[in-house]
Every structure is written in structure tokens, then in C-alpha cells.
Amino acid sequence: MKIHEFQAKEILRQAGVAVPRSIVAKTAEQASAAFTELGGKIAVVKAQIHAGGRGKGTVKDNADQRGVQLVKSAEEAATVAKNLLGKELVTIQTGPEGKQVNQVLVEEGCDIARELYLGIVLDRAAKLPVLMMSSEGGTEIEEVAAETPEKIFKEHFNPALGPQSYQIRKLCKKLGIEGPAARAAEKFIKGLCKVYVDTDCALAEINPLVITGDGGMIALDCKMTFDENAMFRHKDLAELRDLSEEEPAEVRAGNTGLSYVKLDGNIGCLVNGAGLAMSTMDIIKLHGGEPANFLDVGGGANVDQVTEAFSILLDDKNVKAVLVNIFGGIMRCTTIAGALLEAYKKLDFNVPLVVRLEGTEVEEGRKMLADSGIDIIIADGLTDAAKKVVATVA
Description:
The protein is of the alpha+beta class and 394 residues long. It is built from 13 helices and 20 strands. Strands 9, 10, 11, 12, 13 and 14 form a 6-stranded antiparallel sheet that branches. It has a 4-stranded antiparallel sheet with strand order 1-8-2-5, with helices on one face. The protein has a 4-stranded antiparallel sheet with strand order 4-3-6-7, covered by helices on one side. Helix 2 packs antiparallel against helix 3, helix 5 crosses helix 6 and helix 11 packs parallel to helix 12. The two termini are 37 Å apart.
């Protein structure tokens, strides 16, 4: 689960991790008032969307307006906010369609002496969180990893204990952080790591992490994502979810208990099992097709879920054919066949439907489809299914 920068910074603030003073604004007038309330000579107006690269991102059809802009007056803050709010911001992570800006963060200016990168993720191979730091603050970490990986320094830590002081000193030495900044680093890093563990983060990223002129350390930006499977432990964090930032079809699927991810292709996929769903997308690609989605109905899907799954697929205007790929283990082929036939009666199937069934009660399931009188293309094996569905959209 993703949250906005201003929400992440509030979490850090409550945990005693240093962040600049800031105010959220949803109108130009609020942005003007925020600048005045902050009381400084400069401020930064930052678009709040669930995507990185906002500083380099530009408003759709207006390349002069960037997602992060420095302002020197209340009037200028209002103008920048007006040019961002309600507009689509296009960044390296949004794609060409961009994301609509519904709110901006007006943040006080900061005395920047140096910019660093700081991130925490789970290293699944080591089965531990890993703390990463780099001298290349303000730069996309993917670029640093690809071009100058030697500039990224890592330290794994025990989540029950947090990073130890000697580990932080090692990182500071490698990055040339000394004196007051090194002391500030210990407090800042330990505080951020505690937030990461306590809130079941999947990612906590500070970019840039700023060393101020007086040797302090402050989070100039913050990105946090959380393990959705742990949100039952964090009702307060679950309330921070902004559904307007998410793909509507994915939200709809999640509300039905389906695992769905929208893609850019034209072949809809309905599969039981995440691994089989991935294999299905791979084999469609292998035979020259483009999957329109990942969709796992799970092992216990009922008629209502299958109907909703088909409805989601058919509502995607890019979908020109649908491939149903079921391996009956927990899920019986007769169950999915019955659900498929019920769904077919309720929905307007205006695209070719290819079905591959294997496993428990497969013969009975195939017979149900064959006797239905419905125009369904039956496939014998996954390769045959992929070739047939690709052929329908060729």
C-alpha cells in the first residue's frame, strides 16, 4: 500500500524523525495561506501523487510546469498550485497519461549543505532489512545502481535490534559524514529504521536526505509503502490509502477477493493460481501476444467471483479476446465450468473466449462446455490455448 509524501512525513514527525514544516493545500488560496503561515522567504510547492520523479515531471500539455517548484511569495505559491491542481503530472513512473494532482504540499525552505540517498527495503535472500545509503542524493536510485553501483553502501540489520551504532559509523565513514552530521545521522537512521519495522514497511526511502548547514539531518522527501498483508495490525495506516491514486479495476477486483493487475495488452487472462497466471502471460508473449492483465481467481472462487472477474476483463476496452486457463486441484474443473457458463449468461461476451481445463473432473468440465451450445474455443494444453487466443486477435 502506497501513501503520499505528506502522510509519510507525518509518520516520521510523530516518531521524532526530522522533517521540514509543511502544510497540505487543495486550492490555490490554501497554498497562498500556507506560504504565509510558514513564515519564510522561500518555500517549495510539491505535487502529491503516488509516483516518483516529480521534480523532473511536467504537467501534461504544459512542459514549463514541473511537479516540484521553488516559490518566493504567497502569490507565487498560489500561481504554482493553480497550475498543478486538477492537472495531470507526467513523470518517468506515471507513463504518458500522467496522474491527476489533487493536492500539493507547501514546505518551508531548507539550508542544504549536502544531499544523500537513504533507503530501507527487505532483502529476501538475506531475510533481513537492508539499509542503503549513497552520496547521490536527488538522483533516481535505479540510475545509480545501473551506472555507479559502487556508490551504494549497504548494511543489513536485525529488525528486533535495529542498526547498531558501529554500522552507522561505517556508513558515515564511507560517505564522508563527520562531526555534528555524524551524530545527527545516528539518531535519524535509528529512528527511520524503527518506523520501518514498527509499521511493517515494504519500503522507506528518503531522497534526498539533507545535511543542513549546521550539521543537522532532515528528510526533504519521503516515500513509504506498506505490506498490505499486515494492515490488519495498522488500522490507522490503512485509513491513509488514497483510492483515487489506484487503478479502479484493481480496487474493484480487490473488493471481490481477486488478485488483479492491469497491463497494456489485448488478451484478457483468467487463471487460478499466481504461478500459473505468470506462466500464462509468459506463454502468450512467447507466441506473439500481449496479456492485458494478471488475474488470479484463487482456488476457491465461486460463481459471483468468476462473473465479476469476467466483467472486469470485458470492461477493459483494450481486451479483444479472453483466455481462461484452469488447473483443477483445489478448484474442480466442473466448478469453474459451471461458473463460466453462468457468467456467460449474465454478461455480454463480445470477444472470443478460449478455455483450457486440466486436473480434477476435467472431462466432466469439458463436456459441460461442449454441451452448452455457447461459442467457446476449447484448447488442449497450454501451448494450444496460447496459440489459439493469439490467433483470434492477430
